[in-house]
Design brief:
The protein is an alpha/beta fold. The chain has ten helices and ten strands. Strands 1-2-3-5-4-6-7-8-10-9 form a ten-stranded mixed beta sheet, sandwiched between helices. It starts with a helix and ends with a helix. The mean pLDDT is 97. Bound molecules: beta-D-galactopyranuronic acid. Beta-D-galactopyranuronic acid binds at residues 184-185, 209-210, 222, 227. Beta-D-galactopyranuronic acid is lined by residues 184-185, 209-210, 222, 227.
C-alpha cells in the first residue's frame, strides 16, 4: 500500500456530511435536480411463475411528478414468492434491461431471499453528451448545463433515489434493508446515490475505478484527464479543471465513501482490472476508515497488509473484496454482497 500517498491525502475529518457532499457536487458530479413531489407506479405486466415459480417478475412504470415536468421510466421488480417477513432488496442500476442478464444472477439472488428493483440506466437518459433526451431533456432547456449542474452520473443517481422512493411504499420489502448496486460507471453512480440518500442501507460499487472508489492522485490506468476527455458528460463541467491538476483537488475519492457514512458502503475490486486500479480502490477504503471511526463506527476492518485475490473484509461498515479476474460484475461478486449483508444481520 502506498502509505506516502495515504499520508498526504486531504482528509474529510472535521467536515460535516453535507460539507463533504457539497464539495463532491460542486467540483465533480454537479448538483442534481430536486426530488419530485410525487412518485407513482403503474404495473405494465406481471409474470407470476418466474424462475420456476420461485419469483414474481413485474414491469412497472415509475412516474415522477416535479415542477420541471413529469418523468416516466421502466423499473423491473422481482421478488421471492415464498416470504415469511418483509424481504431485503437490491436496487440494481444496469447497462441493459434484460432479465436474466449476465450481470444479474437473478435466480441465485431470489434463492438467497432477496428482492431486486432493477432499471436500465439509458432509460433515464442516454450515455452520451446529448442533454436533450429523457430526464436531461426535462431539466436542461436546450440541453445546456451550467458549470456545476450535474452530468449523467448525477441523473442516473437521481433515478436510483426515485426507485428508493417507490421501494419505501412496497409493504413486502424490508425498508431498512434496501441497498444499491452498480458496476463500473454505474458503480460510480451507486456510490453517489448512496451518499445522497441515507435511506440506502449499503451502497455496493463494483469495479468503479476512476472517479468512483479509486483514489485519483497517482492513479494507474484511467486518470481524471483521460475520463474527462472521453466521458466529460458524466460529470459537471467544473471537474475539467482538475484534468491536468489532480493535485489541486480539494478532496479525493475516499470522500465519496465517507459521504456514505453512517450507512454502509462496499468496494468490490477485480485483481486484473488495472484500468480501474484495485490498489487505489483499496487505498480509498483505508483512507475513509478514519472518517467512519470519527463517527463512532467500526469503519474498515482489515489486516495490516495488501489484499490478495479471494480476500473478503466484511466486519465493518466499509466492506471489501478482491475477486480474481477482470472487469465484470460476476455471480461471485453478488455472493460476496449477500455474504456481507448476512454477516451484518448476524447470520
Ligand atoms: C470505461 C471507463 C471506466 C468505466 C467503464 C464502464 O470505458 O473508462 O471509467 O466506467 O467504462 O463503465 O464500463
Amino acid at each position: 500500500m502506498n502509505k506516502n500517498l495515504l499520508n498526504r491525502l486531504p482528509m474529510p475529518e472535521g467536515m460535516s456530511k453535507s460539507e463533504i457532499i457539497q464539495v463532491l457536487l460542486s467540483e465533480e458530479y454537479g448538483f442534481l435536480p430536486g426530488p419530485p413531489e410525487k412518485v407513482s407506479a403503474k404495473e405494465e405486466s406481471a409474470e407470476e411463475q418466474f424462475c420456476a415459480g420461485k419469483a414474481v417478475l413485474k414491469k412497472l412504470l415509475l412516474t415522477c411528478r416535479a415542477e420541471y415536468g413529469d418523468f416516466t421510466f421502466p423499473v423491473y421488480f422481482i421478488y421471492p414468492t415464498k416470504r415469511e417477513k418483509p424481504v431485503p432488496c437490491f436496487v440494481h442500476i444496469n447497462f441493459r434491461d434484460l432479465i436474466p442478464d449476465r450481470y444479474l444472477p437473478i435466480e441465485e439472488i431470489i434463492d438467497s431471499g432477496y428482492a431486486v428493483l432493477y432499471f436500465c440506466y439509458q432509460d433515464v437518459t442516454s450515455d452520451d453528451g446529448d442533454f436533450t433526451n429523457g430526464l436531461a431533456g426535462l431539466i436542461y432547456p436546450e440541453g445546456k448545463r451550467t458549470k456545476t449542474q450535474c452530468g449523467k452520473i448525477g441523473l442516473w443517481a437521481w433515478a436510483a433515489g426515485r426507485v428508493m422512493d417507490h421501494a419505501m411504499t412496497v409493504p413486502i420489502l424490508n425498508h431498512g434493508k434496501i441497498s444499491i448496486v452498480g458496476h463500473s460507471r454505474l458503480g460510480k453512480t451507486a456510490l453517489l446515490a448512496g451518499a445522497l440518500d441515507e435511506r440506502f442501507y449499503c451502497a455496493f460499487s463494483n469495479d468503479s475505478g476512476c472517479s468512483g472508489a479509486a483514489i485519483s492522485r497517482e492513479k494507474r490506468g484511467e486518470t481524471i484527464q483521460r475520463i474527462f476527455q472521453v466521458f466529460p458528460y458524466w460529470f459537471c463541467e467544473n471537474y475539467g479543471k482538475y484534468a491536468e491538476n489532480v493535485e489541486e483537488l480539494p478532496f479525493d475519492q475516499h470522500f465519496l465513501l465517507a459521504a456514505n457514512a453512517p450507512h454502509r458502503v462496499y468496494v468490490a475490486s477485480a485483481s486484473e482490472d488495472s484500468w480501474a486500479d484495485p490498489e487505489h480502490e483499496y487505498l480509498s477504503c483505508v483512507a475513509a476508515d478514519q472518517y467512519y471511526k470519527s463517527c463512532g463506527l467500526k469503519g474498515f476492518v482489515h489486516p495490516d497488509r495488501d489484499p490478495v485475490p479471494g480476500d473478503f473484509f466484511g466486519e465493518g461498515e466499509i466492506g471489501y473484496h478482491l475477486r480474481a479476474g477482470t472487469h465484470y460484475l460476476s455471480r461471485e461478486d453478488w455472493q460476496r454482497y449477500i455474504q456481507y449483508l448476512n454477516l451484518a444481520d448476524g447470520n
